[in-house]
Amino acid sequence: MLLTRRLPGLLYTYRYTVYSVGVIVATLLYFLFRWNLLCVNLQAWQHVKRMCHLYEEGMAIGSLCAPLCISKDIHSLTCHSFQAAKEAVFSAEWYNIRLVFKSVSRDIQALHWYDNGVLRYPTEKEFLSSIRTIVKRKLNLTLAYDTAVRLSRLKPSYEEKDLTKRQQEMDSLWYLLQDNEYLLSTIFTDKDIFPQLIGTCGSYFAVEYLEPVPSLSSYLSLNDNKEEWGQRLRFAVQILDLLEDLDTGFREPFHLCNVKFNHFGYVKNKKKLKFIDLDEVYPRSIINNYFMEIESCQSDEDCEYMDCRSVCDQTTGQCRGTVTNNNLQIVCEKIFLGWGMSNTILVPGLLMSQHTSSELAPILRRCANPTGGDGKLRTMPDREVKKRLYTLLNEIEQSVNSDFFL
Ligand SMILES: Nc1ncnc2c1ncn2[C@@H]1O[C@H](COP(=O)(O)OP(=O)(O)OP(=O)(O)O)[C@@H](O)[C@H]1O
Ligand SMILES: *[C@@H]1O[C@H](CO)[C@@H](O)[C@H](O)[C@H]1NC(C)=O
């Protein structure tokens, strides 16, 4: 009682402090939202509103427009924070499937153009050939005719006959196809490595929702018991399986240049692991090309693309035109061992715990740092290390987990 009566007086006495605190809190909140460290579902609704507005104006088309805007079968929007590269990431529910919407950039030249005020579109043949050019440039892959035709449509086996609708379809596809994530999910539908594409609406597309992997902080908790160690081992083995698929499942290996704990996700019932963030996933020749095109370098640090690394050749002052580390090395370094500085681990990774055997630890270190050098590592673990790691992890996983899943 006394406090409530005295509150106005107190606020007045300390008014400058109150103002400053208010300003600081407001600024902090502003930046948290601005950098997407925080999000509210309102933002997701705004994206849907924009999508539906374009749809009603006849400027967006796609299989998810009607369920979102007319029948409202897609509901329960939830925003996802921590996205920096993508403008929008939010999940929703559609009957019993959960999907994740992502928006692609519209910051490129439109497909159509005006010729003396007349609206023009490329012919079907020209459109197909530009799709093949995009895929060649982005993935160094020559598309078979059938695949190119499939990519040129929103519904794989449906040919839009209505000219206006076809033009809208081409416009939407044009933006979508520039996006690495959309491209990988559409081209490699049969591989079961990348999230499955569910549908689109305008310049938004939706993929299957993947269950988050347990966060490292929950692993860091004190109850570091045997059962939890078993789960960690299982997760590690699944990561290794995924890396093997990325290495051998394609014409050339795919490199994950942005490896983070939360970029892995489970398909329902934790049977299969997939990689979530495909923005920085490239075939080897493309990443090699990237290093080749760097004009000059002074030190190795100039020859890096996020987690994908090469070395600077001091005699020529140019980056070596090949990526010199690989997925396994990055995963051992960033996921399995953890975060540290000059050979000391400060934040232990997935496989660093009191249960880590004296046989496993040195193998992990050799995998993360094959040459025993300092700084960022730029070599691939050799076949021997890889084989020993795969065998050892599978063995330990089986022996630990057989105690629990008899
Ligand atoms: N298919 C998905 N299933 C479940 N969650 C997802 C999916 N796609 C994205 N997310 C969640 O949304 C977050 C951001 O998505 P994404 O990684 O694609 O965006 P980004 O802008 O590249 O972000 P960053 O690289 O900073 O993680 C992911 O870390 C993940 O938590
Ligand atoms: C694309 O792949 C081919 C065949 O694998 C290879 O010879 C060529 O150098 C690659 N092109 C680029 C630009 O990397």
From TrEMBL:
The chain crosses the membrane at residues 12-33. It is found in: Endoplasmic reticulum membrane. Residues 5-154 form the FAM69 N-terminal domain. One of its GO terms (molecular function) is kinase activity. The lineage of its organism: Eukaryota, Metazoa, Ecdysozoa, Arthropoda, Hexapoda. Keywords: Disulfide bond, Endoplasmic reticulum, Kinase, Membrane, Signal-anchor, Transferase, Transmembrane, Transmembrane helix. GO terms for cellular component: endoplasmic reticulum membrane. It is a single-pass type II membrane protein. Belongs to the DIPK family. This is Divergent protein kinase domain 1C. The keyword Transmembrane helix applies. It comes from Sitophilus oryzae. It comes from the Eukaryota. Pfam families: PIP49_C (PF12260), PIP49_N (PF14875).
